[in-house]
Amino acid sequence: MTPFRSRSRLPRTLVVRLDSAGDVLLAGPAVRAVAAGSSYTALLCGPQGAAAARMLPGADDVLTYDAPWVGLKPPPVTRAATRRLMDTLTAGRFDRALVLVSYHQSPLPIALLLRLAGIGWTAADSEDYPGALLDLRHRRPPHRHEALAALDLARAAGYALPPGDDGGLRVTPPPPTTRLTGPEPYIVVHPGAAVPARAWTPGRAARAVAALSAEGYRVVVTGGRAERELTARVAGRHALDLGGATDLPHLAGVLAGARVVVAGNTGPAHLAAAVGTPVVSLFAPVVPAERWAPYGVPHVLLGDRYAACADTGARHCPVPGHPCLDGIGDAEVLAAVAALTDDPADQEEQTERGAAV
Question: What stretch of H or E contains 189?
Fold first, then answer.
């Protein structure tokens, strides 16, 4: 594609990412590239990703659609919801669209709706034959990280990152959160995940918090409103419990102030990367780490990558005892946290070993 040159002729572009907050955050570099080559850039997101989309630099507007082919609890297919989406897209007068999907997803359902809404040019990665639904059928390289795959598609469509943009994850500056955390240095443990297979069990998380506290770290435990019981149990008498105390921008502020974040493969791990905080990633091998590991920041991956659940996509651990994550010892956790907090040289070495993609 030929890059766009005249600002007056730049297109109105829609970027589609219908998944979770973490997936939307990983789309951030691609969104900035699109924004640099567009007169107007909107994101079409699912309800779970809309809050993250509103934090992405470059987005002029965020549209929401609960797609019936996406998510853990997809809604029923209805004509009314489809018509509302079509009306919204038609009113947006978009010239072009980029559909961002993970390697195992199809862009074709939403591509059909984009075409019917009058969007004249659409690009996406697609393993399936798209017929007349895509103008650019892009093929991602194998084993590509999700953030890089999205940026690859943007580049293939003629959108480039602006000069000086390093292509890392980024969000708008978060609000100050010292009133929540206190001024002293701290680390964050985020014990929850939308998919239980990707997190410690509560008892294991509580033991890790106790071990970190005994080692002298001040620990802050985070979680959403629905996770208050979990965070209270995990924090116990060893940590500050902020369960239910933050919306996503304030959670970003808490993560930005941390020395390191300990979390599973879930949205807050990517949010930590977006604010530049190192991550100890408790990575269950149900999905490949090469695609969803924390991106662009020093990090340490913990977990048995060869466990029986590897590459199954399981939402609930199919192996008794959840050994891939609960089998991580306290010594491993303490060593990982120390490697990311004690010496900047340790962080550089970790990056050189490939921890930061």
Answer: strand 187-190
